[in-house]
Amino acid sequence: MPSKLLTPPSVEPISLTEAKAHLRVDIDDDNSLIQGLISSVRQQAEQICRRAFINQQWLVTLDQFPSPSMNVGSANWYGPQWGDSPGPLTVLSPDGRTNYEIYLPYSPLISVDSIQYIDQDGVQQTLDPSLYKVDDVSEPARILPAYGTTWPATRNEINAIAITLTAGWVSPSAVPQPIKSWMYLRIGAMYENRESDIVLQRGTVDSMPFVDQLLAPYRLITY
Q1: Cα dihedral sign, 59-63-69-74
Q2: What is the pTM (predicted TM-score) of this model?
């Protein structure tokens, strides 16, 4: 699902003061460097977890709305209870999906701000929020047509649907501590080693095996 960052986070999960305390740095000479490391490490962790850590606004696009007919294997598993009324059948797929779902990236979802689409006449329309339901309990979050409705028809062109959403934890204090701990360790390693290659005088470099497991509980495998 193509996406574009519209509004970046206004703060980081870890403040400059917190990072300097972890690094045991009490001078201001490296403030810009450390601030840059915080941002870089946060973006790296977001990519690994497929999440947004601090509230940020994104634009995601689709070429068409999903439907059961897009998947031949699921064509026999939809019915009136999911917006296709009258429909040929009245049961869901064995995995509980309707194939009308739009799965959203960048959990945790705060809000779906708008859904716009290009109708068959080539006019951009904004879908009324009463015509769709947002499931922000599931991760990844999903959007479905409201009961008794279906997705509108769109023109057959790229990026015909544009969804604007806001995602992330609402404040640094809400970001889980294991994520912050991983960030501290990564910031420390990057601050201590300013080059991409390490020249050793003696000994070996071994990564602590538990480090990446700090992020494991927060990784979204699919969306």
Answers
A1: negative
A2: 0.80
Three-state SS at 58: strand
Q: pLDDT per residue over 13-27, tens digit each? A: 999 999 999 999 999
Edge to edge, the sheet with strand 102-103 lists: 102-103, 142-145, 132-135
Question: Region 127-154: what's the mean pLDDT?
Answer: 94
Judged on CB neighbours under 10 Å (0-12, 13-18, 19+), 103 is middle
Fold of the domain spanning 14-49+172-218:
Hypothetical protein yqbg (1.10.3230)
Tens-digit pLDDT profile for residues 108-124? 999 999 999 999 999 99
Q: What is the mean pLDDT of residues 80-91?
A: 43
Which residues belong to CATH 1.10.3230.30 in the chain?
14-49+172-218
d(CA 34, CA 28): 10
Which of 136, 147, 71 shows the shortest CA–CA distance to 106? 136
* Positions of E strands within 40-145: 56-62, 102-103, 109-118, 124-126, 132-135, 142-145
Q: How confident is the model at residue 1 (pLDDT cuts 50, 70, 90)?
A: confident
Residues 6+ positions from 137 with CB-CB distance below 8 Å: none
DSSP H or E run through 179: helix 177-192
